Amino acid sequence: MIDQDSIPSRKWTSGLTGSPRIRPPALAIDNDAPDDVADIYNQAGDDYGSYADGDPSQPFAFDGMHAYADRCVWAVLEAKLADLRASGARSVRFLDAGCGPGTWLRRLVIRAHALGFSSIAARGFDIARGQIQRARLAAGSLSSLPGVTLTFDVADLTDRLPEPDSSVDITLCLYSALSHLPVERLTDISTEIARVTSGHFMTTVRPIGSTPTAFVETVENVRRLKHDHVKDRCEIDLSDGRHMAFGFHLFTAVELRSHFAGNFDIEDLRGLDLFHSRFMPDARWNPVSQAGDGHLADELDRLERTYAASTEFMDRATHLLLVARSRRAVTRESSSKA
After folding, report:
1. In angstroms, rounded to a whole number, what is the distance separating the alpha carbons of residues 89 and 279?
2. Confidence (pTM)
3. Residue 234: helix, strand or coil by DSSP?
4. How far is CA 257 from the centre of its chain?
5. What is the pLDDT of residues 243-278, one digit of tens each?
6. Which of 95, 122, 151, 307 is most exposed, with the fewest beta carbons within 10 Å of its own?
7. Contact 69/272 with Cβ under 8 angstroms?
8. DSSP string covering 204-225, please?
9. Considering Cα of 126, then 232, then 205, then 68, what sign does the dihedral take?
10. Which of 200, 174, 198, 171 is closest to 319 using CA atoms?
């Protein structure tokens, strides 16, 4: 059982052991030691791709741990891509900052090719070399398609991006990428992303009221979890003996908007998965009831649509979604109409 103290200024700790009365010995943590987030994701290996995105050979199955949120994110991305093609564009450029094993970039390239874009340039980067190696391997066949240039690099989001000004149609920074960065750097990072983006930017982050996550493992494999919301510090002991300690910031919707509103026009800001993960059947905790599951799913969809943009609910979602539009795109469109 996991208990979370929802008050952001406090710490919360969970213990999952076979003998709940016996606590494991405390591990010494140097809170001033530099984080090696890359090492955590490198050690996760192939399992991380399955955990985060589901079956890597079925990119549109959306059967991973965050399937509902993934489908919502993909619906927005697919609509933006279709709108761009309908406008007459034949070339498109994507950038995925913190791409992990590259699943989202592969989805975009596959869909862009199916829509008839004749020139597709896509670059993903991540600090975890092991995940970049997996992304390159998974994308091998796509790279050989005519008109497609798909590359993956080891790089840091806090560094200057090599892309020219206003050169990227769709920029992504999904799930935990922003949360691992120092909060004081986010406005500068926003400015740099805005510099290279000519179309849309999309990010998802964990809000302050979200359910516990182990980042590279399912939560039932967690023995102990402690998140210090003041220091933005997370410590996790997994049941296989691994120990992880790293910086991780949980956002409010207002805060997330503030980091990007100075450089973009915010089109959409909402919570993703307020109800699905808590109520849908799951063999690990929620019982299956075939007779009522169809009705339950429909009702949960209705509730999601009703409360996704509600300020009272957004910060308690599993993820926050922000969709932003480059002001350069607005300026160009205004000029062309004049």
Report:
1. 42
2. 0.84
3. strand
4. 16
5. 989 899 999 999 999 999 999 999 999 999 999 888
6. 151
7. yes
8. EE-BTTPPP--SSS-GGGEEEE
9. positive
10. 174
